[in-house]
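Exercise 7b. Backbone tokens:
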């Protein structure tokens, strides 16, 4: 009889956890810190996330920070999903589906100077305007 309340609580916690959102998590601007450089994330347009195979979310303030983190933490990066922010819409998209532009007049938090775009035509237009180059 005493185990019944514990069992109900355990099942409730498991049910709640299984309903949680998978995928990227919203940034708490001014509160979240970059998991690579420890700088406070203040500009969503350059934010990125790496989600490990086990579901652990790592947040970054710049695409270059995520790239450095992947190189220095290959165990966490293996089979991880990476997300960038579509520059025009501030929405997450998988990095592998993004078109990236770099350089020119782009100024990102950690000097990676890279922007991500869901739409290649938008990326090409922004690159021409900013004097940047398409990297992918």
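Sequence design result:
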């Amino acid at each position: 009889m005493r185990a019944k309340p514990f069992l109900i609580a355990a099942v409730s916690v498991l049910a709640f956890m299984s309903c949680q959102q998978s995928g990227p998590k919203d940034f708490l601007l001014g509160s979240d810190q970059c998991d690579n450089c420890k700088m406070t994330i203040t500009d969503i347009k350059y934010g990125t996330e790496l989600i490990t195979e086990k579901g652990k979310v790592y947040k970054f303030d710049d695409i270059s920070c995520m790239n450095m983190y992947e190189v220095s933490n290959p165990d966490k990066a293996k089979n991880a999903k990476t997300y960038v922010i579509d520059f025009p819409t501030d929405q997450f998209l998988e990095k592998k589906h993004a078109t990236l532009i770099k350089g020119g007049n782009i100024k990102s938090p950690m000097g990676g100077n890279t922007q991500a775009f869901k739409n290649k035509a938008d990326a090409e237009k922004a690159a021409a305007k900013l004097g940047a180059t398409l990297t992918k």
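Instructor comment: Helices lie at 3-19, 63-72, 74-77, 120-130. Residues 3-19 form the longest helix (17 residues).
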